[in-house]
């Protein structure tokens, strides 16, 4: 599989008169053709800003202050606005979290769809627009296409946004918390849609979420982010069967586990660090059960524990004993033996 | 405002909105105007209504900073003594509608029903008239004079506040903290006064800052047309009107009162802008 | 279809308001001190002559009856005769109307031409030098009294430079236009300033909205994003403000036309008030209110075209 997108040591800052917030502080990962890559972490960990940085859509006063974003080898950070415009929509597109505010309230869905087909004839635009709406599962597209955002339900708005994002046949779709703002039943519908699209179109997807369940369902590989850095990265099965970072482990521990009825949910005590004044060492150390003095001195480097499985924790011996929430392949048989 | 800077020391800091040059300038202007209004004799030794035919229409000079008018009166003195009148028109003309209109709007928004419908009807009808026209007609009914300028401003000015506050109350009425207070059994009076009022009053106050300017200008306009203050009271609009006939060779009679009106208006506008920023950062 | 429904609904809504307006005007004029019959005949007239005129004018009837007379007059456009000009009021109004309408329209156009680009320019450069400069200028313009600016402009451009006439309306269309320049400019000052502030704030608010980011993410050109998404949405609230300003400018014509000696409705109003010509005042006020209601109606319709959330 070819490498489609490579993020190398990306740094994003929000600089104001009072302080500088390091929202993304050295994030690296790759996305290959045809795969769905997950970015998971709690609110404020920098996953959304990373995505916005890829398409240079950071809200002021955010700025990329370091690193590279290589798309098919070309560095997006260095590109001129005109070059970026040819990438947006056509190569990479994005779907935001809140569909009500992401669609223009005074333009019809039709107009907003047509915008992604510049240069096509009216008949062609009509054909492609209605086809897209049908593809994402919006009933009677010929009628609904003339309507406005406020006339659509939440789930339908999200589908419409996906349809628009797919309009120019991008190779990479970035979905920033696509189901967070929706009801649970609607969430399932949208996730099904994404599964189908993934299978039928063979697109690469970067899926940003705070929900481990979504990761498990849709993603091939995943990176766990905390306080602006990646703390663990692996393929999904490996991550869920063999977590190798205290944060990942704690996240899974906080999931309601069907097997442990009657036991208390384990919340992670404390709060994420202030990114305007980040701590010197590992950012998770203040909340980590296994932190030592040395953890607070220097931020640990990313280490490849096994092929394709990276972790940023010093305490190798401790994390090696973590058990995931699904049995590792082969372990179940051995245990029985 | 005390903040915890990264170095860990406590430091007193001036809130950013207060330190902007605009707000400082606005405050200074208004303060100067207030001082002129309260202690006019500090700034000039001339009598604003004393006629002196030997110095008719003298251009600005060291002895007569703003020159003299066609009656030989010192224009600077007239302008300084007039400050109080114009400020009063602006401030009093705004204050009564602010209070009265806000209360009306609050009741209408909160209780709804017949009272609200009647109020909105009344507002619709009154808003069909251009502001200046309505003021002029009221002045015609009441007659000339400064007192009637106030009354006219009061009768017309409350509408804007009623609409504004009513709109805000309508939005807040369904907010959870109000519903919580109702469920807790608080009396209406308590809810209105202590929960609703503080939240809706900020936009009314911001509007009031610009309203002061409008009232001053309207009062001056009425005097300019000859409907406002009685001569020889030195109100800025009236002075301007007097200077009209002599404008080609005694421009100063017209220029300086208008300039003062403009500058005072700018002062209040800057104050209003500063207030807006302040209230915005406080998070309503 | 929805558009038509909405339009019809709005037009019908005006009727009851107009009716109430006539009642209010009637009552207000009635409250003006003085006996209209005596005013017409003068101080020296005999009491019996005054009484006769009162009967003729219907002034001895009950209040409601007088009101219906008045309403009848409005509907049949029989508005009485002017005391000062000795001509039918209808005629006076018709002659003065075009002048005030042209003044207001030209002032509005001036304001739009100036404020839209400047407001957008300032909004896109929030807090930078360009934005600050525009805002400071706008702030100054708002506080300037119209009659002061009018007189100074008249002095500079009319008397000293002689580019424009000092007053009056002129005879030919060209002269008409020339005599409107200074007045329209004066009126448009405050309106432009207020519009600039409104547009600037709208643009600032809208340019950070998510849908602007989403539009950019589609690969749209800067121009498309700016105009189709930012400006178009920003202008919606401006339309409402514009209507309010036009109504205010109609009222402001009272001052401007007086200063520039333009024979429009505003000057007619002032002259009639001082001349105690209350038949004229009564009809004038109604005409002003009517024009304001029409402006509001047109604005609402325009607004519903721009913002589909209103119709549906």
Q: What do you see in this structure?
A:
The complex is a heterotrimer of chains A (337), B (284) and C (312). Chain A has 337 residues and is α/β, with parallel strands linked by helices. Chain A has a domain at 1-91 and 174-185 and 205-272 and 302-337: 3-Layer(aba) Sandwich (Rossmann fold). Chain A contains 14 helices and 12 strands. Chain A has helices at residues 47-54, 81-87, 99-102, 109-114, 122-135, 141-144, 154-166, 184-201, 212-218, 236-241, 246-253, 293-297, 316-320, 331-336, and strands at residues 3-15, 20-32, 36-40, 62-71, 74-75, 92-95, 172-176, 204-209, 221-226, 229-235, 303-306, 309-311. In chain A, the strands form 2 sheets. An 8-stranded mixed sheet of chain A has the order 6-7-8-3-9-10-12-11, sandwiched between helices. Chain A has a 4-stranded antiparallel sheet with strand order 2-1-4-5, covered by helices on one side. In chain A, strand 11 and strand 12 form a beta hairpin. The two termini of chain A are 37 Å apart. Chain B has one domain: MetI-like fold. Helix content of chain B is 69%, strand content 2%. Chain B has helices at 16-19, 21-38, 75-111, 113-126, 131-142, 146-173, 176-183, 188-225, 236-243, 252-281, and strands at 2-4, 10-12. In chain B, helix 2 crosses helix 3, helix 3 runs antiparallel to helix 4 (113-126) and helix 3 runs antiparallel to helix 8 (188-225). The radius of gyration of chain B is 23 Å and the shape is elongated. In chain C, 39% of the residues are buried. The longest helix of chain C is centred in the C-terminal third of the chain and has 39 residues, at 222-260. In chain C, helix 5 packs parallel to helix 12, helix 7 packs across helix 10 and helix 9 crosses helix 10. The chains are: A alpha/beta (337), B mainly alpha (284), C mainly alpha (312).
Q: How does the SSE layout of this entry go?
A:
The complex is a heterotrimer of chains A (337), B (284) and C (312).
Chain A (H helix, E strand, L loop, with lengths): L2 E13 L4 E13 L3 E5 L6 H8 L7 E10 L2 E2 L5 H7 L4 E4 L3 H4 L6 H6 L7 H14 L5 H4 L9 H13 L5 E5 L7 H18 L2 E6 L2 H7 L2 E6 L2 E7 H6 L4 H8 L39 H5 L5 E4 L2 E3 L4 H5 L10 H6 L1
Parallel strand pairs in A: 3-8, 3-9, 6-7, 7-8
Antiparallel strand pairs in A: 1-2, 1-4, 4-5, 9-10, 10-12, 11-12
Chain B lengths: L1 E3 L5 E3 L3 H4 L1 H18 L36 H37 L1 H14 L4 H12 L3 H28 L2 H8 L4 H38 L10 H8 L8 H30 L3
Antiparallel strand pairs in B: 1-2
Helix pairs in contact in B: 2-3, 2-10, 3-4, 3-6, 3-8, 3-10, 5-6, 6-8, 7-8, 8-9, 8-10, 9-10
Chain C lengths: L1 H30 L4 H6 L5 H11 L5 H13 L13 H36 L4 H15 L2 H15 L12 H35 L2 H8 L4 H39 L4 H10 L3 H29 L6
